[in-house]
Amino acid sequence: MIWSAFRPSDDACEYGYLIPSNMFAVVVLGYLEEIFSNVLDDKEIYQFSKNLKLEVKNGIEKYGVAKNKAGESIYAYEVDGMGHFLIMDDGNVPNLLSAPYLGYVTNNNSIYLQTRKTILGEENPYYYTGRFAKGIGSSHTPKGYIWPITLAMEGLTAESRHRKEEILNLLVSTDAGTKMMHESFDVNNPNLYTREWFSWANMMFCELVMDYFNIRVKKPVQ
To answer: Is the terminal CB of the chain with fewer CB neighbours within 10 Å at N or C?
Structure first.
């Protein structure tokens, strides 16, 4: 796998092998493999991309799978390759929740479904539940604050259209009257938030709206 010093949130990794980023790398290497075989003819880059993709993917499946408290196989957030791992997820993408969105697995993959259930629950130290909302936050923002980006991601990776609708309604009802998505907000008081507007979160909201109406780009699974 590929070693990282920092998470997408810019916070330091505890263990160096960040599984969501490695998943993203597998997908991007698959794009390179396709480009240098079907668009550009460069057998050397094609073979390098293919070999590295398989190396990273094999590393994820061998070292990146851990057991949750229930003894179920799930993807860890970070590992060190020597048996240590973190069970958690962060509000920034790429994260474990986004694995089907990225194109690493399908959203009905058994390990992904167990991972999803785990990280959208109390075993994830950054999962917060309050009076107005529940979802995944980050070490980058205050405790009890959750991220609209990842609420949108929860909707984009949900199998149920009803769940997508619930999340869209939640996002609208927690914008503190700004008509904008924030970086994060307090689950007990949506009027407390970080960043009055956050273009990434705004676009994720827009993408979830389009997804709700079946306007989406189909991503092949690598």
So the answer is: C
Residues 6+ apart with CB under 8 A from 211: 155, 156, 164
Q: Is the dihedral of CA 135, 140, 145, 146 positive or negative?
A: negative
DSSP designation for 74: E
Classify burial at 14, counting beta carbons within 10 Å of its beta carbon; exposed 0-12, middle 13-18, buried 19 or more: middle
Question: Are 7 and 77 contacting, i.e. CB atoms less than 8 angstroms apart?
Answer: no
* CA neighbor of 113 nearest in space, from 175, 70, 161: 70
> In a 3-state reduction of DSSP, which class is residue 97?
helix
Give the confidence band of 197 by pLDDT, cuts at 50, 70, 90: confident
Tell me the CA end-to-end span of the chain in Å, nearest whole number: 16
pLDDT band at 36 (very low <50, low <70, confident <90, very high): very high
- Whole-model pTM above 0.85? yes
